[in-house]
């Protein structure tokens, strides 16, 4: 592939990432949360309940930062702390999916609708290319993250 095309794609990818950060920062503020806190709720929705240590490992945040994060979520009724039945020293973080969705669904409604409309404008073959790109890009990002984290 020509270097001009690769440069264009790389710049578009960077712009997509920057624009995504801006949008998610704005959504977080609208939801009354700082920065990209709400993206960490996505981990809890996707993976389900977990300990603060597990959330720290998953996000790369320090345990102190995760404690503050959980405090903010708990104040908004988005998560609940619960002692583990087998070990009361261990605290489980349980997402309140209903509250999380009620808070964020209206903020994402138009974006989701327009994104679905955009995807519907592509052929099945084009959708496969997009899907392949994202799947492989995610693998590369995970490899990079793991390598930088010495995993």
UniProtKB/TrEMBL annotation:
Gene3D superfamilies: Winged helix-like DNA-binding domain superfamily/Winged helix DNA-binding domain
Single GO molecular function: DNA binding
Record protein name field: MarR family transcriptional regulator
Organism: Chitinophaga tropicalis
Matching PROSITE patterns: HTH_MARR_2
Pfam families for this protein: MarR_2
Keywords, ordered alphabetically: DNA-binding, Transcription, Transcription regulation
Superkingdom, natural source: Bacteria
Chain ranges of the HTH marR-type domain: 2-139
Region forming the signal peptide: none
């Amino acid at each position: 592939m020509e270097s001009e095309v690769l440069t264009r794609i790389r710049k578009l990818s960077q712009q997509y990432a920057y624009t995504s950060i801006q949008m998610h920062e704005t959504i977080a503020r609208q939801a009354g949360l700082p920065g990209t806190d709400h993206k960490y709720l996505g981990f809890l929705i996707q993976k389900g309940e977990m300990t603060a240590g597990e959330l720290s490992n998953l996000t790369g945040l320090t345990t102190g930062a995760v404690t503050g994060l959980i405090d903010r979520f708990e104040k908004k009724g988005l998560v609940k702390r619960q002692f583990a039945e087998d070990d009361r020293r261990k605290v489980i973080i349980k997402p309140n999916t209903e509250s999380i969705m009620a808070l964020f669904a209206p903020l994402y409604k138009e974006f989701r609708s327009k994104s679905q409309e955009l995807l519907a404008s592509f052929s099945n073959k084009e959708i496969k290319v997009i899907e392949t790109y994202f799947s492989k890009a995610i693998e590369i990002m995970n490899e990079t993250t793991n390598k930088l984290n010495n995993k």
